[in-house]
């Protein structure tokens, strides 16, 4: 991908006749690397894209069952991420434990 950089202006606000600021500074081009996003082809994901490789690895751990489950101490609900369990506890989302 190619992005044009905005023209830089001098701090004084006045330009002199022989200064280099009179040149067209919009001709500067910044090249941004365009790497392909990591994809998952396992677990029926059909090429789901992830923004980072670490997000893909976390997804694969969770789907394969290797990730430790976080359990709510009040209702026994299981979560794949501790942050989800903490939000569950913080917002008092516990439902009554079902008796079988």
From TrEMBL:
Region of interest called Disordered, as start-end residue ranges on this chain: 1-35
Biased composition (Low complexity): 9-26
Native source organism of the sequence: Hypocrea virens (strain Gv29-8 / FGSC 10586) (Gliocladium virens)
Name of protein: C2H2-type domain-containing protein
Taxonomic superkingdom: Eukaryota
């Amino acid at each position: 991908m190619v992005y044009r950089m905005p023209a830089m202006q001098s701090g004084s606000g006045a330009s002199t006749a022989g200064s280099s600021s009179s040149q067209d500074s919009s001709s500067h081009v910044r090249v941004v690397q365009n790497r392909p996003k990591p994809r998952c082809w396992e677990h029926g994901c059909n090429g789901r894209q992830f923004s980072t490789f670490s997000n893909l690895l976390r997804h694969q751990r969770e789907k394969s069952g290797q990730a430790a489950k976080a359990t709510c101490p009040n209702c026994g609900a299981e979560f794949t991420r501790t942050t989800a369990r903490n939000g569950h506890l913080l917002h008092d989302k516990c439902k009554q434990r079902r008796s079988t």
